[in-house]
Amino acid sequence: MPETVFGRTSAGFSPDFSFSNAFISRNHFVIRRENDAAVLYDSGSPNGTEINGQKVVPHTPYRLQTGDIIKLAKGLTVIHFSYLFGEQTLELEPLSSAMWEEPSGATTIHWEKRECVVGGKPIAMSEKEYLFLDLMYKHANQLVTYHDIKQTVWPDRPLGPGGAPDVHTDELNALIYRIRKKYKNTFLISAVRGNGYILETDAKESAK
Length: 208
Hints:
Blueprint: E1 3-8, E2 17-19, E3 29-34, E4 37-42, E5 49-51, E6 54-55, E7 62-63, E8 69-72, E9 77-82, E10 96-99, E11 107-110, E12 115-118, E13 121-124, H1 127-138, E14 143-145, H2 146-153, H3 169-182, E15 188-192, E16 196-200, E17 205-207
């Protein structure tokens, strides 16, 4: 069964996805492909694995979804997990994982310019990026539901079931994936399975 091992490189062991942090175990966790799903198993690591803020029970399967955030060793390393789907199918393509790294230099958001400065480089926000990030910052460290996100980011979209704009989950996931990639993981956005997202911030970013 295909699997990817995540852990710390040592003299006699080299995992598929390696880290140098001493608090990460040599075989920290694995992600296996089971029935076209990605399933995570913590390998009994002493410092543990968290998914969306909840500690994973060792050797217990946890089915991953796009938007999940995996934290190793009590948050010393953070991985954004995404599946990349085709436009009209849900066939699995290779997963995309990005290790959290502090941007060099301060991060500043100029809301009136719709611009984010990351490491001294100004990056213009698209309309949907601006609407999403503005909403998330107004409710930082709080759950923002799918319903509220869809109403704010896609206000002109016809209403679908439940009274929210008719926006497919893949479309919302794609927006968040683009934000993470474009802004080099400046924004730590955690998925709350079945409910929405939380923007985690500890005031490292400044806004003007």
